[in-house]
Amino acid sequence: MISKRAMKVDSSGIRKVFELAEKIENPVNFSIGQPDFDVPEILKEKAIEAIRKGLNRYTLTQGIGELREKVLQHISKTRKRTFQPNEIIISSGVSGGLYLALISIIDPGDEVIFFDPYFVMYKHLVNLLDGKPVMVDTYPDFKISEDKLKKAVSEKTKAIIINSPSNPTGYVYTKEDIETVVRVAKEKNILIITDEIYDGFVYNGNFESAASYYDNVLILGGFSKTYAMTGWRLGYVVGNSEIIAQMIKIQQYSFVCAPAPFQHAAVAALDIDTSGFREIYQKKRDLIYEGLKESFDIVKPEGAFYMFPKLKNGDASAFVEKAIQNKVLIIPGNVFSEKNTNFRISFATDEETLKRGIDILNRCAKDF
Ligand code: PLP
């Protein structure tokens, strides 16, 4: 019954951790990819208001005009470049946007380049669509090497995906990293898909977008993380109008539109000052980095709420098993990578849990 296409995707790595999590009493859960605060009150009120007003029907496929306009203003201002009304679609989360973007550009055998470690969905979606994932290794410092990137480009390259701040490393691309990707992409006018979902969580103030330096881009952005509304399923894609037109067409026959009341509520989101959340997460980042830096090799994350420590020796799956036996839920590096030397921590949790987890992980590392 099951298609070969469906069988290409394996979700066992993360699922195993989630299944174990259910069996452990009071675990230190460092595996969750969402903020530990709740949606700002004003947005909840706006969503309830929209539902009460009867704004519960299908919207235009590409999203309501008010939200598209607001996002375009925000993106044009922050990425220092003006985007036009035909260069945006409101999607069902960044996941929905990514799926529509990839299905609009990939033919069987087409190659999509991204950087290892990577966000899990990139590899699986490219495979699912009969494309070929081409990974460029960025260990140990997660910087982009021009040499390696150039070698990965072929006649079949359809796009380069970048993700800054990164899941799973928390690495924020420097201007130099971005310029490297743009330089390579420019040579063959390759599309850059830039996943900027964590742009609300940059701790050193140095966020750079490829869209500020290059025209042939799709920016993937969203509300899930910045406003803690992962369940509202709202995101957007801004950029190349030719691809956006195809994405709108395919959204019409798949997602239809992003959830209507939440689109109405999100119009108010971009006016909210979220610097308070960022400052709280920066403190959490400092706490966990300082707490673990002696036991593991760590590139200090400058963004998102993840850290990707490297074990001094040994295999990440064995270490993760040991950590889980000691009630700390972390995810082995091979879920996000072709290597298995690191593990992912999400530090989106309260201070007491962070401290408990730091103690246990240090103890586990000592006799590993
Ligand atoms: N991109 C990255 C890098 C992510 O980490 C996530 C979620 O974890 C997503 C995209 C998907 O986000 P959503 O579909 O909730 O907008």
Describe the structure.
By secondary structure, this protein is an alpha/beta fold. It has two domains: 4-39 and 274-367, Aspartate Aminotransferase, domain 1 (Alpha-Beta Complex); 57-271, Type I PLP-dependent aspartate aminotransferase-like (Major domain) (Aspartate Aminotransferase, domain 2, 3-Layer(aba) Sandwich), CATH 3.40.640. Helices cover 40% and strands 14% of the residues. It contains 13 helices and twelve strands. The protein has helices at residues 4-7, 12-23, 41-52, 65-78, 93-105, 120-128, 146-152, 175-187, 241-252, 260-266, 275-292, 316-325, 351-366, and strands at residues 28-29, 88-91, 111-116, 132-137, 157-163, 191-195, 217-222, 235-239, 306-307, 328-329, 331-332, 343-346. A seven-stranded mixed sheet has the order 2-8-7-6-5-3-4, sandwiched between helices. Helix 3 (41-52) packs across helix 10 (260-266). The radius of gyration is 20 Å and the shape is globular. The chain starts with a helix and ends with a helix. The model has no long low-confidence stretch (mean pLDDT 96). The chain binds pyridoxal-5'-phosphate.
